[in-house]
Amino acid sequence: MATPVTGAESGSAPARLRHLEPWLYLLPGLLIFTAFMAIPTAGTIILSLTDWNGISWNTAIFNGLANYQRALESVQFRTAFWNNLKLIPFFVLLPALIGLIPAAIVHQLRLRGGRWFQAGLFLPYIMPGVLIGVVWAWILNPIFGPVNKVLKQLGWASPPTWLGDFIWALPTVGFIGAWAAYGFCYVVFLAGLQKIPNDQYEAARIDGAGMWQEFTGVTLPGLRGEIAVVLSINLINALRAFDVIKTTTDGGPGTETQVMALYMINSAFGANQAGYGAAIAVLLSVITLVGSMLILRFAGERNG
Amino acid sequence: MVRKILAYTLLLLGAAIAILPFVVTILASLKTAPELAKGIFSLPNEAQWQNYEKAWTQGHFGRFFGNSIIVAVGVVVPSIFLSTLTGYAFARFRFRGSNIAFTYLLLGLVIPLQAMVVPLYYVLREIGLLDSLVGLILPQIAMSLSFGTLLMRQGFLSVPNDVMEASIVDGANSWQSLWQVMFPLSRPMVGTIGLMFFIWTWNEFMLPLVVNVNPKYHTLPVGLMYFQDRWTANIPLIAAGATIIFLPIIAIFLIFQRQLIEGITQGAVKG
Q1: CATH number of the domain enclosing B255
Q2: Residue B173 at interface with chain A, using a CB cutoff of 8 Å
Q3: Were B217 and a residue from A30, B147, B212, B249 both cysteine, which residue would form a disulfide, CB within 3.0 to 4.6 Å?
């Protein structure tokens, strides 16, 4: 029976139809969610078990786990997966550190105006990945980009081509990712620090704790939850990375910055292997889910 | 004291590094190419507004901008409306199946576009929505609903019980009490989800890249990418295009900063 959470029955509708009332509110949302979210998601799993060129439905052939086997054995998928892993220090740890240290300093020194800076710091995080990619591709462009111009003026005759360099491309993409995320980490940490009771710091000070002891004894344990959340969000961004890479290197040079999402799109739509692309989508999603759950558990328990 | 000055310097540096790329982009968009080659931090001798004119007309940014606006409005308004209905259903009624329905709708929080984009393309092809703006709008409404339902339910639950009771005593049915009482009281939440929906939609890249091949239906991010490919060497023009994308976001950010930061820290889970 559907009953209002509070108060008296509202009069008009016949009692036996009353239980339909909440479903009427849900119906439009459920329909559109099912059509454009649930069905495609289930479709990914089904499609991943077929061999299909994506052209006409009747050419699809059930082929069990063959796509998964092919992906796990493929050099290209392994390279992409490995590149995603190599992005983790840059996308996950670096921005968390760059965000954590100033947030802790602001809070422990009781600086005023720490919140004022968050506006500027936060800006990159809400910008389109494409824009970030395009702007940095210019800044780092070996011919007309300002970075290499400055380096040459400083006396470095031939600085790396950064995004076009086999060694530098991945770390460079990584730095762009770290740049985009550190302000976000700072803001989350600063918000978390407001929730730590001040008497914990008082007590530490009475015990004669210095800045560092305050940091390890009060700040870090107090931020346990926020650290877990930030790390897992950053991890998700590292494993799903697409926009910035598509617009800066498109996976190159060679396959130096090829990542899973890019490989998935290229396989499904570029190479017309819808089933294989779907299998990569499933792998990508499972890896992301497992990774973020591990971090939430690990970071949640470490200090708890 | 010295420590405080050092700390402020550090913060200032962090904020400057975050903003600087946008500042130099705006500056570059107002210069001539030779002027830009001389220095990126200098102010332009004379603002080259024709860069914008060229990007807007020859670069088709006018059309991309229009498409982006249509898609943003087409996603944000219905998403707010539908999230209001679903959130209200879960906040106001206790009914059999509510837990299952709630969990089902929240699945979207953990399902990224990448997990469904391949079949989604073929779903849209089947119903003839490839190369159309509607093909961008409908999936993004679906992608917005999980977060919207979660937040609107929270918003409605935080309205004091006696307020709702009062409207019921006044003889309002559930629909009337939603729009006359509950919705107006939940305006801050509506604002937050509206902002989030807008940013997500404005920034979305993978969906339009896959769904719309015809340049007629490109939105700004995809348009900018192809534009960059074609005009690689004309930095002022690319910078003008880039500025057209990010100025609306900066404007919204400056106006709604606090709500936006709250929304993102809450909505971060969606990723």
Answers
A1: 1.10.3720.10
A2: yes
A3: B212
